[in-house]
Amino acid sequence: MSQKSMPNKTALSDTATLAIRQWLLNYASALFFIVFVVMWELICRVGKVPVYILPSPVSIVNAFFDVEFSRWLEHLWATLRVALMGFALSICISIPLAIAMVRSEVLSRTIYPALVVIQSTPVVAVAPLIIVLMGTGDMSRVLITCLITFFPLVVSTATGMLETPEELIELSKSLRAPRYRETWQIRIPYAIPHIFSGLKVSITLAIIGAVVAEFVAAEKGLGYFIQFSTSFFKIPQAFAGLIFLAVVSLVLFKSVQWAQQWLYPWSIPKNKR
Amino acid sequence: MLKKLTKPLLQVTALAAALGCSAMTLAADKVTFQLDWLPGGDKAPVYVGIQQGFFAAEDLEVKIASGRGSTDAVTKMATGQSDVGTADIGALMAAKARDGVPVSAVLSYFSQAPHAFFTLEGSSIKSLKDVAGKKIATSPFTSSNAFLPLVLKENGMAADSVTLVKSDPGALSPMLMTGNIEGIIAWVTNVALYEKQAAEAGKTLRVIPWTDGGLDLYSSSLLAADKFLSERPDVAKRFVKAFAKAVQFTYANPDKAGADIHAIVPEVDAAIAAAQIRSINGLVYNDVTSHDGFGALTPERMALTWKWVSQANDLAADAMNPEVAVNRDFMPEQK
Amino acid sequence: MTKASERAFVRMEQVGHCYDPAAGNMAVQQIDLEIHRHEFVAVVGPSGCGKSTLLRMVAGLLIPSAGKVSVFDRQVTEPRDDVGIVFQKPTLLPWLTVRDNVLFPLKHKYGLVTAADKVRAEELLAMAGLAQFSARMPDELSGGMQQRVGIVRALLLNPDILLMDEPFSALDAMTREQIGFDLLDIWTEHPKTVLFITHSISEAVLLADRVLVMSQRPGTVLDLIEIDIPRPRSSATINSPRFAELTARIRKHIYEPEVHA
Lengths: 273, 335, 261
Ligand SMILES: Nc1ncnc2c1ncn2[C@@H]1O[C@H](COP(=O)(O)OP(=O)(O)OP(=O)(O)O)[C@@H](O)[C@H]1O
Ligand SMILES: [Mg+2]
What we know:
The complex is a heterotrimer. Chain A has helices at about 10-45, 55-65, 70-105, 105-120, 125-135, 140-160, 165-175, 180-215, 220-230, 235-265. Chain A has ten helices and no strands. The longest helix of chain A is centred in the first third of the chain and has 38 residues, at about 10-45. Chain A starts with 8 loop residues before the first helix and ends in a 10-residue tail after the last helix. Chain A has two domains: about 1-50, no CATH class; about 60-270, Orthogonal Bundle (MetI-like fold), CATH 1.10.3720.10. The longest helix of chain B is centred in the last third of the chain and has 20 residues, at about 235-250. Helix content of chain B is about 45%, strand content about 15%. The N and C termini of chain B lie far apart (about 55 Å). Chain B is an alpha/beta fold. Chain B has two domains: about 30-110 and about 215-330, Periplasmic binding protein-like II (D-Maltodextrin-Binding Protein, domain 2, 3-Layer(aba) Sandwich); about 115-215, Periplasmic binding protein-like II (D-Maltodextrin-Binding Protein, domain 2). Chain B is globular, with a radius of gyration of 21 Å. A five-stranded mixed β-sheet of chain B has the order 2-1-3-10-4, sandwiched between helices. Chain B has a five-stranded mixed β-sheet with strand order 7-6-8-5-9, with helices on one face. Chain C has helices at about 1-5, 50-60, 100-110, 115-125, 145-155, 175-190, 200-205, 240-255, 255-260; strands at about 10-15, 30-35, 40-45, 65-70, 75, 85, 160-165, 195, 210-215, 220-225. In chain C, a hairpin with a 6-residue loop joins strand 9 (about 210-215) and strand 10 (about 220-225). The longest helix of chain C has 17 residues, at about 175-190. Chains A and B meet through helix 9 of A and helix 4, helix 7 and helix 8 of B. Bound molecules: adenosine-5'-triphosphate (ATP) and magnesium ion (MG). Magnesium ion (MG) binds next to helix 2 of chain C.
């Protein structure tokens, strides 16, 4: 402001470029997103792309607001409920399973192959069977979600527990501490970073699981909504559902990240905290 | 206080009544209705039945479950997840011939086949015979694919005279509208949707139903689980009666029917549903029904249907007597 | 009491171990060693000669396949809880504060810690010069500080025996020397029997009462050298001629083994 404190010309341009750089770094993703959407809209308008090939962002936004918000919430709640219940069930199953596998060689040898078989069976193929066996209620959709989410959790938990430094296990042995304390005070906390990377994968899979289940049998939910919209050739509406679904996945993913940051800040590398 | 005491008591009696003597009804009889696909104009009657009170008049409480294809719908009825529903009678026949599923047809809904070629005005495909040597797109799992060779043969063409391009159902319409492909295989039930798309693209749809080429059979029908029919015959009878009434109302009042389905499933546009209903009137009311009456499942036409279905599914003609797939005890009386 | 301190505290008789009986090759063999109470014994030898194996036998984490190890005339047949172990890496638990890391052995062994334990932990930390860091998380400390915490943790249960497996090898030379003298201070204040494994010959000579020199695999005792340099030792010790003599003697064993074979 005052003439005196004004830096000389080169320094000024230096700080300016630095500021621009920092600004770019901070808003790079937002900027990219805006450019992307604007390009998309332009291509659709200039190229007169038919809506059934690629709906323009504006038509998608319009389609989004054409559907009553309470209706969106109903579909969202149906999907979210199944996804979260499946996710919770999967946590309840996989963490004890991983603990059992780490503690017992026999169990680990018998269960691992079974897990791999379950994991490599496409859930899409099994889903109709589950619906036939367990009915069209929430329970079978939760089970489908659980099936799709629990493998990464078991593997990451078990891996984390096995990666505990050997020294600490020896320390525990030399203290002649009860075995359960080795599990709870050393192995499980050590597995926390791994468990959370597993949780991050699982939460996004949970949404996929819930949607797959809705494709097979449902009267509500975002997956059902998307399928419905496509069957009526309401492509912008299907896109709106798809984008909404992606946003929900993103929020859930971020929530897991926040939970980790809040509950176990030490488990995140220092430069990322 | 008194309410507290009587409420469980009432529940117990209701339960006993439901279990024991269904004739002595305290509460409405519950029926689960199975669709073979997502809600849409062609599925309107059951929604109309609810909204217009046809079911309530028969003391029925109907719950609707959407399905994912005819086979899925038949399976759900066979496993007791649903009591009645609409699905392709051909799927039922095939499932019955193979596994003897405990499901029977009780009423015909579409007395003609819905399969068709869709092309655009201006295309060289003007009749069924013109498809020879053409590339036609179809979705991978539709039952139409099995009937195609039979229809081609019926019209003096070789089974391989058409090159089929399998594609996702959602991609068929864009392929047709962009001129990517000259013709597609689709169902008449979707004519209204395709016409709208064509209009948006500034084109006109041309529909060539396979019935024109001699494909002559029952298709979508009202099916019911045998268990439902044997354990609750009275409920079943009332349901069929109300459903038949609802069908009549639907096709007499497409706009009201469209509004009814929209009221229950807001995702369905009332106007589109009404257009769909209008466009498929011929599947429900046609030469067959004017001769036999709506809903009839005549032995002759059952045999004809089985002839087509058995060939399409590679089943021996004598693998099953088509009569086992039908139960005429629940037909509403013809006026 | 004097009698007891004269007696061999840790005794190894013809100890040998084979990790893989199928292959049949011994990791260590024919080790005879007596360590007196409150003696500081350093072990040097080429990599893979079985130094860690020896240490684990004293802790009872490994039962030798030949010979026997006894502590205070009782044979070691299972893990002993009167040893404190310091590892090469500090292996602190990243989710606990420095103080809780120090208290961890108690918490882990008994499931609870008392107020008195907390006071003791603070005292030990103060002794190691870490008083103001007790509420910090381990990753806020330097490597040398973390290793000090590791030592303090090993001292918490006031063990008779302190087993240290290359505790300073991850530290830079300056820190290393300083922390060595700190260890001697602690040891003088709280006398313990120390088995100290190191790769540094000068470190061994600087700190120990006796240095055990081991041979290439399969590890045997090459020499057991009395370090007769008077205590207290300091950085000046390094310049004494006796220090040079003793390190030279050990170096000879390590670098020219065939001369002695
Ligand atoms: N758990 C184990 N299983 C099989 N062999 C082992 C095991 N631990 C050590 N060994 C072998 O026994 C020998 C002695 O190992 P030890 O770890 O005691 O050596 P060291 O002297 O401590 O080596 P370093 O100085 O590198 O730490 C080595 O040759 C090693 O390969
Ligand atoms: Mg070692």
